[in-house]
Amino acid sequence: MRLLASELRRLRRPLFFGSALCVVAVGLILTRSGALLGQAASFKGSQPASASSQVFTSPTGVGRVAADMMASIPGLVAILALAGGHVAGEWTGGTIRTMLMQDGRRWRWVGGKIASLTIAAVVMEFIVWAALAVWTIGLRRWWPTTPQMGVAHGLALALSDVARSVLVVAVFAAIGTLAAVLTRSMLGTLLGGMFVVGGSLALSNIAFTRELPSYWLTGWMRFHDPAIGAPYGLWNDRFPPGIPYPSLLVGVVGMVGLLALATALSGVIFARSDVSA
Predict the structure, then answer these.
(1) For helices 73-83 and 14-43, what crossing angle results, to 10°?
(2) Is a pLDDT exceeding 50 seen at residue 15?
(3) 60 within a domain of the structure (yes/no)
(4) Is residue 276 situated within a structural domain?
(5) By CB neighbour count within 10 A (0-12 exposed, 13-18 middle, 19+ buried), where does 225 fall?
(6) Residue 246 resides in a domain
(7) In whole angstroms, what is the distance from residue 129 CA to residue 3 CA?
(8) For the whole model, what pTM was predicted?
(9) 25 near 117, Cβ under 8 Å?
(10) Contact status, residue 51 vs residue 153, Cβ threshold 8 Å
(11) How many domains does the chain have?
(12) pLDDT at 240
């Protein structure tokens, strides 16, 4: 616990707050666009907005937007940036040898990095939720004159996505840690993590769709499940003809397996690394 507390204290840096601010800005733009689209639909005489789309009017329901964003590209970039500073920064800052002299258990060090990054990402998600909750007050200027979503209803919609997003940000943290251990640089961490996830997104429309992390993540987060409603994650959830929408079981098995693989590779590589340089 002392190791985790120490790692969390080290994460209280401008990089964390800057990353959170960037994700908040994306959320403000996304929800503002959704409000405008809702207003345009009301002018055209479309059917009333669904419950899932009304989260933009609810300070509790808008937590679904925060969760889906942290479990997609904005959250990935923010977590990779944190991993670059928090993990690869041990090499660029010249502190890695000192850290290992204090505690030479390298697997414990890797676990502490992944756990602290995951907790930081969850805290960032709640910061985004709080900012968007305040923003919903302004969004009601542009939203159609329909009944506002209740607090309890909005919370019920949001908590499901928030709970599922914890596994996703843990996977992003593990991928970021692996990229940082391999490259030992901020830029390498960002490029390495984006290569894995971005390459998966690009390939999902061409081949090997069911074997790719982007497919598993979609199944777990239910980004475009008609029963849940419109997605708020910035993610490619459209697949080639003949590829079914991934089930929740496929999603959880794939994501848990990816988390275990990235964690194991990080530990093995770091355990065999020469950190004298």
Answers:
(1) 170
(2) yes
(3) yes
(4) no
(5) middle
(6) yes
(7) 28
(8) 0.88
(9) no
(10) yes
(11) 1
(12) 85
Span 88-103, pLDDT tens digits: 888 888 888 888 887 7
Residue 244's identity, in one-letter code, is P
Instruction: With beta carbons less than 8 A apart as the criterion, state whether 109 and 270 touch.
Output: yes
Provide the residue type at 14 as one letter: P
- What is the SS3 assignment for 126-189? HHHHHHHHHHHHHHCCCCCCCCCCCHHHHHHHHHHHHHHHHHHHHHHHHHHHHHHHHHCCHHHH
Structure tokens, 78: 């923010």
Q: Which residues of 25-40 are buried (b: 16+ CB within 10 A; e: fewer)?
A: ebbbebbeebbeebee
Task: Read off the tokens for 151.
Answer: 């607090």
Distance between CA 225 and CA 159 in Å, rounded?
17
Instruction: Give the chain as a 3 state SS string.
Output: CHHHHHHHHHCCCHHHHHHHHHHHHHHHHHHHHHHHHHHHHHHCCCCCCCCCHHHHHCCCCCHHHHHHHHCCHHHHHHHHHHHHHHHHHHHHCCCHHHHHHHCCCHHHHHHHHHHHHHHHHHHHHHHHHHHHHHHHHHHCCCCCCCCCCCHHHHHHHHHHHHHHHHHHHHHHHHHHHHHHHHHCCHHHHHHHHHHHHHHHHHHCCCCCHHHCHHHHHHHHHCCCCCCCCCCCCCCCCCCCCCCCCCCHHHHHHHHHHHHHHHHHHHHHHHHCCCCCC
Report the 10 Å Cβ neighbour count for 44: 6
pLDDT of residue 143: 60
- 138-183 confidence digits (pLDDT tens): 777 666 545 667 778 888 888 989 999 999 999 999 999 999 999 9
Any idea which of 168-172, 238-242, 252-256 has the lowest mean pLDDT? Answer: 238-242
Q: Whole domain around residue 16: which residue ranges? A: 2-271
Position 277 in a domain: no
Tally Cβ neighbours within 10 Å of residue 153. Answer: 16
